[in-house]
Design goal:
177 residues; globular; 7 helices; alpha/beta
């Protein structure tokens, strides 16, 4: 099983305070499941994760739906979010993000800030942004559609995993012809 991770954060730096973690598990041909856990901002700050005023301002300019998705259902602590996510990441054969250099770095740093080791090896990291770019360079059109809710970690993870599946299917078709 592969897993796509998407974070919503209160900074764009590597020590950003995480407010939502979304994931979509997938195989070579389908989305197998998804989920999201919201994080109480103060719990992330208490672990040493940071907030950037510019990012908070950006969130204030987003839709009511996007902002409310960060806080419903009731958020838990960053520690409980990581506890829930650990088995998924530990057991995944590949850990994807778009881009991996953002989401996975911040997530790894969150584990470190909470005094826990990262449950996945860097050798299993995959970058969906790079895959989408490479696919476009060889004529594979981008996946049509958009996330069901903008800036919602789960919806974004599902959409990004769908992009990977779309490109893999196109590459398989090209290979067989």
């Amino acid at each position: 099983m592969k897993i796509m991770i998407d974070l919503e954060t209160m900074s764009t730096q590597s020590d950003a305070a995480i407010v939502s973690i979304g994931w979509a598990s997938f195989t070579d041909d389908k989305i197998a499941g998804s989920g999201k856990v919201n994080v109480a901002l103060q719990s992330a700050i208490d672990c040493g994760m940071r907030v950037c005023g510019k990012t908070v301002g950006w969130w204030l300019r987003q839709s009511d739906d996007a902002r409310s998705a960060l806080f419903h259902p009731d958020p838990g602590t960053i520690e409980s979010a990581l506890w829930k996510l650990t088995p998924l990441l530990r057991d995944a054969e590949e850990v994807w993000a778009k881009p991996a250099q953002f989401d996975l770095v911040i997530l790894r740093n969150a584990y470190r800030a909470c005094g826990r080791p990262s449950p996945w090896s860097h050798k299993r990291e995959r970058d969906a942004r790079t895959l989408v770019s490479l696919a476009a360079s060889i004529g594979i059109a981008d996946f049509v559609g958009a996330p069901t809710l903008e800036h919602d970690a789960e919806a974004d993870a599902i959409y990004q995993a769908s992009q990977v599946l779309w490109i893999n299917a196109a590459l398989s078709q090209m290979k067989s012809t």
